[in-house]
Specification:
Helices cover about 45% and strands about 15% of the residues. By secondary structure, it is of the alpha/beta class.
Amino acid sequence: MSLFLFIALTIWLGLHAWLLWRTHLLLRPPAWAWRLGMVAVGLLATAYVAGRILVHTIALPEALAGRIELAGALWMALVAIVATLMVLLEAASLVTWVVTRLAAGRGTSLFQWLREGPGGARWAAVGLTWGLALAGMAAGAVRAAAPPEVLRLELQLPSPPPGLRRLVQVSDLHLGAILPQGQWEGILETIVATEPDALLLTGDIVEDHTARGLGQIRQLRARLPGIPFYMSLGNHERYAGPEHLPPLASELSIQVLRQDAVDLGGLWLGAVDDPNFTSLDEAASTLRGWVPKDAPLVVMSHQPQAVRRFADRARTLVLAGHVHGGQVPPFQLLAPLSNGGYRAGLYRAGDAHLHLSRGAGTWGPPVRLFAPPDVVVVELAEGEGFTVSVR
């Protein structure tokens, strides 16, 4: 965890240094304006971490600490989109340099032309970059606030469990201090409307154990009384403090499956922990020991890479989350690099199937650009063999 934070903070600081350097070269602002801007950027760049710390202390009321965290989270989304646009500008600069070098023997990049050209062009380039980023962030915030899409899978089994027609997977809610109430209510109504026979929570359900986050998960349970809740552990269950989970699960009748499985009536439902708790190899090996070799199996796993531990096992469907579909550019491209090449949707890994949810909530900024939230309904039907398809 400490190594991850060190790497993340180093990248975060380096990203700011690059963007500020490039912006300064184009704008050439007066010293006083630049110093003022640096102070503002410094406050915004640290606001998310500061808010996360303050929300767990008594230094500030939870609502105020949450607003500081939210401001920092929105800044994260804006910086990510600006960085994506700046990379495109850098790529265009490289292309123009190569073209002019081949054509005239002296390379001139687009960035160099902007920097040395008329002031209006320089200001227009900066304004367009940050303006597009703001527009993208606003559009992503609107999409995140809208109810999730309902994705439907059909799982055909020779003998579906009697009375069990619909398994509903909900992943990556990240309930807590900064999830906007309107966004949560849209998610909640979508989940309830699916009319689940069982709710499968595949990790990162509670972002922080604040009064608001705990109230939201209790609200979900109250809207689905009598429906069995099953849960696998995600990385944020670790970050938020695993000691909080047992009493919460007991209070809300959530059955947390950890490298074990339950028989739902011929269909087995199992789960493996996130690698922050135990290795996927060990978790998958332990789970497989619980389940008859030829029995149909649905595995809840926060991390999608778990499917490769079941690749030699036919009649297996892994339901995963974690990746958020990338959530905000450029992570649509970067996220699969650290998640086994998976981003969202239905995959095959050997004999096993994987369906990767984009998640219903958001981590960090309540923004989703080109990665809409979803809730996954697995409808059980009678058929030959073990077949998984998108409806």
